[in-house]
Amino acid sequence: MTDGIDNAKRAMRADLRERRQQRSAAALDAAEEGVKAQLDRLVDDLGVRSMSCFLSTTTEPGTREFIRDAVQRGIRVLLPITRADGLLDWAVAEADADVTEGIFGMPEPVADVLSPLAVNDVDLLVIPAAAVDRTGMRLGWGRGYFDKTIGSMEQCPPVYAVIFDSELVDEVPRDLHDQPVDGVVTPTRTVSLTH
User: Fold this and answer.
1) Disulfide engineering: 103 pairs with which of 27, 28, 59, 82, CB 3.0-4.6 Å?
2) What general EC class does the enzyme of this chain belong to (predicted)?
3) 83 is in an annotated binding site
4) What is the mean pLDDT of the chain?
5) Is 11 annotated as a binding residue?
């Protein structure tokens, strides 16, 4: 990665992180409710029976209510577990499973661990992002886990990033290894993107 791109990504992430930390609890609750409605509609529209999602942090658009409800509806939801080698293991979500702190402080399920290959049979990938541009390029949080996962899949299903409305932007800094997404889910809408 060139220094210019690296610096631009770092600056954009810092700005987005600060904006997220300034959101009120009421705004975050409303965002989670909106994201749940959008994800419910997307899952129904795509006929999803198996998918991946992520356990949201306290400053992200919430996914936890959606995950709980999806599990109760009989959808198999895989949750990521970070590994030191840069790959993701997976665990099947359970409605009342315990949550622990992963390698980088991200919430992860306490459950039986499945290999990185477990995600190969899902109908939909729902992943975190700092921002996404209108061509589908995603700015992650800098560890590369989801870029590696998407880039390694032989037959990648649709990939949607969960962001706040203001984080769908005109352009994000990009490098060769960065992987695009097919769309974004925000608290107010689901947008399909072409790349």
Assistant:
1) 82
2) ligase
3) no
4) 92
5) yes
Tokens, residue 23: 């959101």
Residue with tokens 């690296």: 6
Q: How many CB atoms lie within 10 A of CB 66?
A: 26
101 annotated among ligand-binding-site residues: no
Task: Give me the torsion for CA of 28, 184, 151, 107, rounded to 10°.
Answer: 10
Distance CA(152)–CA(134), nearest Å, equals 23
Domain ranges in the chain are 3-192
Query: Is 36 known as a binding-site position?
Result: no
Partners of 159 in the β-ladder: 125
In angstroms, the first-to-last Cα distance of the chain is: 21
Give the pLDDT score at 3: 76
Of 86-90, 102-106, 153-157, 163-167, which gets the smallest average pLDDT? 102-106
- Other CB atoms within a 10 A radius of the CB of residue 6 amount to 13
Instruction: State the fold for domain 3-192.
Output: Rossmann fold (3.40.50)
| Residue 13 assigned to a binding site | yes
32 is in an annotated binding site: no
| pTM of structure | 0.93
